């Protein structure tokens, strides 16, 4: 299998997961696409380092999350400039969109992005279908720490989505 075919296979099998990871870290469409490209390049460059100690999917997810974290840190260090015409909300919902579902989806995305990185990583990896044990291995934590972080992430998301609910505060 040639390099082009290998890349196409990687993209075909793992591209959707990589796009979801990018969307968990970047809200802006242009910056998200840039992050997706950075992630693809990082995964492609790191692929020869995979020694089979972890499943390929877990290895790829770890590389992607590492790249996303680096991207977020770099973006945080740079001042943001946004043209005024882009500052307004874009587009009306399509006729097929349900307003309530769209609002909930948007609030959920914002709530996930607002999570501290220590809670966001395990939450996003869980959404990708990884087990707490796999997440622990990827993040260099023990399974108990992952479970605690997931519990805190869920509580934070519940509070963000149901602000009137008197749920107790959970620290990050």
UniProtKB/TrEMBL annotation:
Q: Give the Pfam families listed for this entry.
A: Sigma70_r2 (PF04542), Sigma70_r4_2 (PF08281)
Molecular function in Gene Ontology:
DNA binding; sigma factor activity
Does the keyword field hold Hydrolase? no
Ranges of residues in domain RNA polymerase sigma-70 region: 11-76
What residue intervals traverse the membrane?
none
Enumerate the UniProt keywords alphabetically. Answer: Sigma factor, Transcription, Transcription regulation
List all Basic and acidic residues biased stretches. 73-84
Q: Which InterPro entries match?
A: RNA_pol_sigma-70-like (IPR039425), RNA_pol_sigma-70_dom (IPR014284), RNA_pol_sigma70_r2 (IPR007627), RNA_pol_sigma70_r4_t2 (IPR013249), RNA_pol_sigma_r2 (IPR013325), RNA_pol_sigma_r3/r4-like (IPR013324), WH-like_DNA-bd_sf (IPR036388)
The UniProt annotation puts the region (Disordered) at 73-98
List the PANTHER family. RNA POLYMERASE ECF-TYPE SIGMA FACTO, RNA POLYMERASE ECF-TYPE SIGMA FACTOR
- UniProt name for this protein: Sigma-70 family RNA polymerase sigma factor
Q: Which organism is it from?
A: Candidatus Brevundimonas colombiensis
């Amino acid at each position: 299998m040639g390099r082009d075919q290998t890349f196409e296979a990687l993209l075909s099998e793992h591209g959707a997961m990589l796009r979801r990871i990018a969307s968990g870290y970047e809200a802006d469409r242009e910056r998200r696409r840039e992050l997706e490209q950075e992630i693809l390049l990082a995964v492609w460059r790191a692929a020869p380092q995979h020694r089979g100690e972890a499943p390929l999917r877990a290895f790829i997810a770890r590389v992607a999350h590492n790249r996303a974290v680096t991207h977020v840190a770099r973006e945080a260090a740079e001042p943001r400039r946004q043209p005024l015409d882009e500052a307004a909300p874009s587009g009306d919902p399509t006729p097929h969109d349900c307003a309530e579902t769209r609002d909930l989806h948007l609030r959920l995305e914002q709530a996930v992005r607002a999570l501290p990185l220590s809670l966001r990583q395990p939450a996003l990896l869980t959404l990708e279908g990884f087990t707490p044990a796999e997440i622990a291995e990827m993040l260099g934590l023990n399974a108990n720490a992952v479970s605690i972080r997931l519990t805190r992430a869920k509580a934070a998301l519940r509070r963000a989505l149901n602000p009137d609910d008197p749920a107790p505060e959970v620290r990050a």
